Amino acid sequence: MLQKTRAIVLYNMNYSDAYSIVHVYTEEFGVASYLTARAKSRKTKVPKSLFHALAVIDLEVEHQNLREINRIKEAKAHIPLISLLCNPVKSAISIFLAEFISKVVREIQPNKFLFDYIFQSLQVLDLTEKSFANFHLVFMIRMSQFLGFYPDATNYEKGMFFDLQNGIFIACKPNHPHFLHPGEALVFYYLLRMDYENMSNFKFSRHERKEIIERILEYYRLHLSTLPEIKSLEILHEVFG
Q1: Distance of CA 157 to CAs 115, 148, 168, 177, 231, Å?
Q2: What's the order of all strands across the beta sheet hosting 161-163?
Q3: Percent helix / strand / coil, the chain, rounded to 5
Q4: How far apart are CA 186 and CA 169, in angstroms?
Q5: C-alpha dihedral sign at 97, 103, 104, 107
Q6: CA-CA distance, 104 to 224, in Å (whole number)?
Q7: Dihedral through CA 190, CA 92, CA 71, CA 17, nearest 10?
Q8: How far apart are CA 79 and CA 58, in angstroms?
Q9: In degrees, to the nearest 5, what angle opens at C-alpha 194 toward C-alphas 189 and 198?
Q10: Contact criterion met (CB below 8 Å) for 32 and 63
Q11: Among 206, 241, 226, 234, residue whose Cα is nearest residue 95
Q12: Given pLDDT bands bounded at 50, 70 and 90, which one contains residue 42?
């Protein structure tokens, strides 16, 4: 039975000489993998050019939840995100976030709120013409809200520590090694005040931005059962170097 869904492309991998496997986050099925032909053809209903990192596409698929890999009947662009391909900085951000999402979100069950968050965020990135250096920082920390472990900053006061393990600001150093000292905690608090509308108002040095990403990833590792190495992180560091 054919079914339709919107999908966000995470990555492609070669399966054989004739086929590739595209991994996507779908609106209807959660994380899913589909077999696609590698051969180019003008008549194909599944053009390879659609499957770039974080492309938003409309799929008609043969989907069975018990299958590890399903088939795509037809694919087309849902909305064109041209600047994610043409702008080298946005392209690097897209590749990094696509890998981040693929390693953080493993649910085969759909999560409409998370899908909408990612979809709307991509539209913001595509339309933002300048001052988007903090976009991925905002995206990563706010995504934790949809996964159930967004940090609590309601009681923050200057000089507090941030307990990464419990996601709270506290007055005294915790009795475990997963925390931020007051200076780092202040930067982390600024991060929690950021959104897509005001992100250009916050200025970070290359070193600070690198440290923030590492701390966000540490926070995710403490709250997820596993988080493999993000290989594209070095590319992102080079772009903002």
Answers
A1: 34, 24, 12, 21, 36
A2: 168-170, 161-163, 179-180
A3: 40, 25, 40
A4: 10
A5: positive
A6: 8
A7: -150
A8: 9
A9: 145
A10: yes
A11: 234
A12: low
Write out the two tokens for 106: 């493993």
According to DSSP, the β-strands at 19-26 and 30-37 are antiparallel
Q: What does DSSP assign to residue 171? A: S
SS3 38: coil
Model pTM greater than 0.70?
A: yes
Please give the Cα distance from 147 to 105 (Å, whole number): 9
- Where does the pLDDT of residue 198 fall: very low under 50, low under 70, confident under 90, or very high at 90 and above? very high
Structure tokens at 46: 């599944």
Q: Which residues contact 24 (CB under 8 A, 6 or more apart)?
A: 7, 8, 9, 10, 31, 32, 33, 34, 57, 59
- Count of H helices and E strands in the chain? 7, 8
pLDDT classification of 142: cutoffs 50, 70, 90: very high
Decide: 207 and 215 in contact? Cβ < 8 Å: no
Report the alpha-carbon distance of residue 4 to residue 29 in Å, rounded.
10
Strands 30-37 and 70-79: parallel
* Whole-number pLDDT of residue 222: 96
* Structural Rg of the chain based on CA atoms: 19
Q: What tokens were used for 181?
A: 């000292």
Q: What is the largest distance, in Å, between two alpha-carbon atoms of the chain?
A: 65
3-state secondary structure of 238: helix
Instruction: Tell me if 240 sits within 8 A of 133, measured CB to CB.
Output: yes
Burial 73-98 (b: 16+ CB within 10 A, else e): bebeebeebebbbebeebbbbbbbbb
